[in-house]
Structures are given as structure tokens and as C-alpha cells.
Amino acid sequence: MSQSFELIAAQLVSIADGFHRRGWLLGTSGNLSAVVERESLHLAMTPSGVDKGALLADQILLIDEQKRVISNHQAKPSDEAPLHIRIVKQRSAGAVFHTHSVWSTMLSDLHARDGGLAVEGYEMLKGLAGVRTHEHREWLPILENSQNLEQLAGKVGEALNEHVNAHGFLLRRHGLYTWGKDLAEAKRQVEIIEFLLETIGRTRMLSGKG
Amino acid sequence: MSQSFELIAAQLVSIADGFHRRGWLLGTSGNLSAVVERESLHLAMTPSGVDKGALLADQILLIDEQKRVISNHQAKPSDEAPLHIRIVKQRSAGAVFHTHSVWSTMLSDLHARDGGLAVEGYEMLKGLAGVRTHEHREWLPILENSQNLEQLAGKVGEALNEHVNAHGFLLRRHGLYTWGKDLAEAKRQVEIIEFLLETIGRTRMLSGKG
Amino acid sequence: MSQSFELIAAQLVSIADGFHRRGWLLGTSGNLSAVVERESLHLAMTPSGVDKGALLADQILLIDEQKRVISNHQAKPSDEAPLHIRIVKQRSAGAVFHTHSVWSTMLSDLHARDGGLAVEGYEMLKGLAGVRTHEHREWLPILENSQNLEQLAGKVGEALNEHVNAHGFLLRRHGLYTWGKDLAEAKRQVEIIEFLLETIGRTRMLSGKG
Amino acid sequence: MSQSFELIAAQLVSIADGFHRRGWLLGTSGNLSAVVERESLHLAMTPSGVDKGALLADQILLIDEQKRVISNHQAKPSDEAPLHIRIVKQRSAGAVFHTHSVWSTMLSDLHARDGGLAVEGYEMLKGLAGVRTHEHREWLPILENSQNLEQLAGKVGEALNEHVNAHGFLLRRHGLYTWGKDLAEAKRQVEIIEFLLETIGRTRMLSGKG
Questions:
Q1: How close D74 gets to chain C, by Cα (Å)?
Q2: Do C26 and D208 touch (CB under 8 A)?
């Protein structure tokens, strides 16, 4: 397991650095995780409060299903670990990525009253797992933000049940969660959803619809 | 031929990486190709479903005119290979680049009902092959997006016949295709057209014309 | 002390380079400082008039409380050193960062008549020192710009007294000042406040509120 | 002289690469020059039609006052060399930089009927050579674009005479020219003017003034 953990940790660092450069993980925001062992759940995860542009592989934590740190690291797991664990279990995900972009922050607020945001008719949607055509309609649920993370994890669980086809969701004025069967799929979906949110936001500006 | 293929593959990787950084090939979108041999057509091409920011030269495919993989790679050719092949043959192009930017996605939708987008009076136009003055008027045809790629290749062929001077075209809510006699010319034209699309999009916002 | 100074100088260079790449320190604008010794105040600081994208560690100055250069460098301290010194003393800061972004320039002007700008309800606020919830309301005071830096330092001192919880302030049509107990905290707060200013600016555009 | 030329060539390459990354020299647009010898004028200059993101030092040309290539390079001097030569002579500049950004392209068009664009009251102006306060008013003349470069050089000469304090000018729908006593000053002024143009453009959008 240790070699696999090291490999996953190095990949998380590289992905975090790329996302930080794009402005999606500024100011220690966001967190990335990946499953190391599924039976007795072991999750590699970025620690709380670190600069994602200066992360080192040996800062990546290994936590269990109760978000206990089981590696020899002293760092604190992120408060949002319960959301990652919930998604991993409910979606059988291999990786869960949470980013904070300007566009996801804005659009999660603007569409909060609708409970979600529909994205439809873009070729870019074809990159989402299992989607075969641009004629797909993706519903991105939007949940109210909260500092009670255990409660929020429960609401995330409900939303995942209600929207079984959703590839991600937004937390209001907070950011995006998406996941994949592995690191590459989760990374791809972050890029796709961030691209689509920027496109939708700019289209509103371009067409003058406030 | 093999050395030439290796050199072309290395250049495709480098160009793909640069475009990915600019946000023009996010989420495995887009594809780049270049002619290795023209007589019996051999095309070097980025494979389907790979992260363009983490591409390796040995992932580049060599395909023939029937989009059969003729190198020893197991990877799958992109669904859009028929469009590349059509353009190579009809324009005698040495390289064909397809990018997905936010601006091309938006403007291809906004101008779809006109069947194209005129770009006129910009110095930047002088960088397009054969253009000698900013007083040039470039017509970028816009085609409806489709998942029937063979049929779409036929429509691309018709558009190329109809607009013999076009340096590129847009697929609606999908992205840009442009090409050149070689890799450098195709890269230059991607940069030029993307710059002009951003300029046109922002000008609409600046002048409040929704 | 010298080793600590060298380490701090190297970190200032690395942070300056990153901020320059993001467009927050263009054209020799902005300045960064960090405390090397607090008793008899010694401050490491970027010199006046240098390109922050091409800074070298041995260009970093060491100055005292009277902004005298006490290292062996010939370079001139920034005119804004009195502001850094004032903040270090009044907030017991370990690092003071001043950036010039497009968004801080614009919003500091747009909200100048209100004397400041309120930022409220964003998850990103949780990254500010001591803030535990997105339900936080941050007031960013805005001060009129001036070339009389000693006088301006006095006004900064008053603003810091009046707004004891503020994590930063804006100079009108000039930029952002923030600080932290150390380099990492100051860097984090720059990223957070710049993110929030961009979010607020774009939200105004998106919602059509001029 | 040869060592000085090599050093200047290496710096031009590094500056070109940085500007290309920021999107200010896309598609082989723009050109950079620097004086190697002033008596009998020798100018190091980027050649015509090259990718500024993949430039090599040995591609930099050495030209004389009649834009004859006097180094052993085969490359073609840029059509815009007469503008560079004119500016060098009339302003005693040590370096002349010409960039094509989206913002300079848009604003040079929007303000063309006024013959120029006023920039006033920004701290960033203090970085322009000889400017000591943000209360400075910079007038950026705007000239109609033309493919008759000798004639255009004449008009540039007149504009430089008329606006003796101008630190740069715009060509309509084309881009920015600025210069400095050396490479560092010219680079600084590009960054400053580009920053200010972006600020002015976005402010128009933010305030809803079309």
C-alpha cells in the first residue's frame, strides 16, 4: 500500500499545483482526496490550511472512514473530510476534488434559489463520465453552505440520492465538488465543469442578461 | 519516416501543453494532428480522451486515411479524426488544430443563425496565411455540432468548398478548427483566431451590445 | 540573524515572482516586507523600482525603523516603507504585502465614497486569520491615495485603530495592503482578498449593477 | 560589441517569452528592439513572422538605420522596423517594444475618434519614466493603422513631436508602442500601460458605460 500512497500523494500535489495556478485553490481553499484502499477505507487527502501552490507530497494525509489520521503525519485533516468520505462511499468514487473558483462562487449564488444550475448542449459535456453527446443536460445541484460539516455531509448524501446522474454539485458562495473513478477522471471533470461555468457566466454578461 | 514522426510527436506534445495552459484544451477536449506522409496519407494525431496537459510523445498515434491506427499504440483515435483527414485532403494542410475555448464556444452560438462570423479590420488578421493587410475580411463559417462525425466531415467538406478563402471554421458550442501548411502556421492561426474571438467578445461587452 | 534574513529574502523573491505572474505586481509596483528582528526592528523588504518578476534574493534590503538601509545593499528603500513599518508595529505583523491588481484598483475607486467595502458571506473569508465561518463580515477600509507617505502612514495608523478587526485595507486607485503573523499568512490573505475583490467585481458585471 | 549584442538578444528573447505568455504577442504579432550602438545606429530586433513563445537568441537580427540586416542572419526584418528606428532617434530610446493585447486593440478603436486616450489619477502611472505622482495625466495618442510603414513612421514622428511627454502611443485596432532608456524601462512601461488599459476597459464594463 505504501508505494501506492506515495504515488497518489505525488499526483495530488501535481494536480493541486496546477489548479492553484489557475486560481481554483487560492488562499489554502479547496481540498483533494483519493482512495488508497477501499475495503477498510483509506483516503489520501490534502491537509487543512496549506498553500496548494507549495504543497509537498509528505504533507498529504492518510485518513480512515472516521477521518482519523492514520499516517505518521501531525497535520490536521480538513474540516470537509466528511464530505469527501460521503461522496467516496455513495458514488464509489476513486477521487474527490473540491475547488473554489470565482465563477463557481458567483453562479452558485446566482442560481441558489433554483436549487441548481442546468448545463445543456455543449460539446464539452461529452467529457463527463458516461456522457456520449452534447445533447446531454447536466443538473448541478446547489446546496446552502454550512459550517456544520457532519450535517452538510448528510445533505450532500441526500442530494446524491436525489440526483443520481449528477457529476458534481456546488456549495453556495463556496465552490465545486466533483469526483471520478480515478484521479484522471476527477481532474478532467473539474476542468470541464469550471470551463462550463465560466462559459455560462460570460454568456450572461455577453447577452446582457443580469 | 520514424524520425520525422518522433519529431512531429514531440512538437504536438509541446503545442498541446501550451494550449492546455491557456485553457483551450481543457478536460481532454480538442485534438491536434500533422501530416507525416502525404502520398499514402499518414497522420500523427493526439489520441482520444487524454489530458492535453500531461501528454507524452509516445501517446501520439499514427493513423491512415481510414483512421486505422498504424503505429504500435493501443490508444483509440479521436472520433473527430474524419474531420482532420477531410481538412488535410481538401486544403492540402500539413497540420490541423482543433481547440475548445470559452470565447469560441460562446461566439459560435451567438452567431450560429448567421451561419458564420465576420472578422474585419484588425492588424492581427495579417498573420493569417496569405493575408497582407488589416483591411482583410475573414469569414469564419459556423456549422451545427453533431455526433455523426462522418456526416459532419461531409458538411465540413462542403463549407470548405463554399468558403475557399476561410482559414478556419467554428462548430457551434464546440470550438475552432484551423490548419496550416505546417505545425508553426497552424499554431499561429490558432493564436490569431482565438485572440480575435476574445477581442470581438469583449468588444460586445464593452459596448453594451447584448 | 543572517541565515534567517537569507531564508526570508529567498521566500520574498519566490512570492513576488508568483504575484507578478498573476499580474498583481506589474511594472515595479507593489512591495513586500517581513520582520527579521522585532526588538530593534529589522525589516527585509523589496527595494524601490525593481521588476518583481526578475528579482534576486541579494536585492532584498534590510532596513530599520527609520527606514535606513542597514544591510550592505546600495538600493533605495521603497517610498512606502513607512506604511510597512507602521503596520508591523501596530498589528505586530510578521509580514506586510502590498499588491496592485486591476480589481483592487477599480473597486477602491468605486467604493471610495463609502470609505470602505464590505465583503460578507463567502466561504473564502474563512481563510482570514481568526475567522471561523463564512458568515463573517469583513470591512476593507479605503484610504485616499497620497504621495506624502509619512502623512499617509499616520492615516493608516488611524484606520487600523478604528477598524481593529480589519485584515487589510485599500488605497484608492492604488492597491491592497494586508499582513500576517508570518509570510505564509500574509500570502494567504493576499490570495483571499484578491479572489474576493475579483468575485465582487465580476458579480457587479454579471448582475448588471453599474 | 558582439558580447553586448548577445546579451541584449538573450534579454529580448526572455522578455518576448514573458509577453507571449501574457497574450501580448500572440500569432507572431508584435516586435521588440534595443539599441546596440547609437552613433552609427545598430539595432537588435526580433525578426518578422516568428513565434515569440519559441524564439531563440540567434534569431534576433542586427539592423542599421536603413533597416538593412547587418548580422549574418538570413531572417527578414519586421515591416515595422521604420517605426522602431524613428522612435529610437526621436526619443533617444534604448529600447522600443510593440505589443498587441486584446485591451489595447479594443481601446485604440473605441477612442480613435478622440485621437487619443487620457489616463489619469492612478498610482500605477508613477512607474512611467519621470512621473512622480498619481496626479499625472497621460495622453496616449491613437494613430490610424496603415500598411504603408514609411508613411506611418512619418505620422509617428509628428505625433511624438506634438505630444512630447507621451510615454507611448496606440495604433488603431493594432496595439501599443512604448519605449525606454533601456530594456528594463521599456518592459516596465509595457506592463504599466497594459495594466492601465485593462483597468480602464474593465471599469467601463463595471460602470455600464458602453
A1: 32
A2: no
List chain B residues with CB under 8 Å of D106: 199, 202-203, 206
Identify whether the C-beta of residue D104 lies closer than 8 Å to the C-beta of residue B123: no
Are residues C11 and C3 in contact, defined by beta-carbon separation less than 8 angstroms?
A: no
- The sheet with strand C95-99 has its strands ordered as C61-64, C42-45, C31-37, C95-99, C175-180, C168-171, C137-143, C116-120
Residue B207 with chain A: CB contacts under 8 Å: none
Mean pLDDT across chain C, nearest whole number?
A: 95
Residues 6+ apart with CB under 8 A from A90: A157, A160, A161
* Averaged pLDDT, groups of 10, chain A, 210 residues long: 83 98 97 96 94 95 94 83 98 98 98 97 97 97 96 98 98 98 98 98 81
Rounded to whole angstroms, how far apart are CA atoms A203 and A195?
12
Cβ B188–D27 below 8 Å, yes or no? Answer: yes
Considering only CB atoms, which chain D residues are within 8 Å of C28? 127, 188
Pairing of strands D168-171, D137-143: parallel
**Residues of D in Cβ contact (< 8 Å) with C104:** none
Radius of gyration of chain C (CA): 16
ipTM value for the complex = 0.96
Residue A127 to residue B205, Cβ atoms within 8 A:
no
The number of beta carbons lying within 10 Å of the beta carbon of residue C40 is 8
User: Which 8-state DSSP code applies to residue A55?
Assistant: -
Are residues D122 and C173, on separate chains, in Cβ contact within 8 Å? Answer: yes
Question: What cell was used for A177?
Answer: 465538488
Cα–Cα distance measured from residue C40 to residue D10, given in angstroms and rounded to the nearest whole number: 44
What band does D210 get if pLDDT is binned at 50, 70 and 90?
very low
pTM: 0.96
- Residue B13's contacts (CB-CB under 8 Å, 6 or more residues apart) are B55, B56, B57, B60
Per-residue pLDDT reduced to its tens digit, D109-153? 999 999 999 999 999 999 999 999 999 999 999 999 999 999 999
CB atoms closer than 10 angstroms to residue C146:
18
CA–CA separation, D119 and D196 (whole Å): 8
Instruction: Round to whole Å and give the CA distance between D143 and D159.
Output: 8
Cβ–Cβ gap B188/D110 under 8 Å = no
Helices within chain B (DSSP H only): 2-21, 81-91, 102-110, 149-162, 183-206
Subunits touching A (CB < 8 Å, at least 3 pairs)?
B, C
Residues from B in contact with A at Cβ < 8 Å: 23, 26-29, 51, 53, 100, 102, 105-106, 109-110, 145, 147, 171, 173-175, 201, 204-205, 208, 210
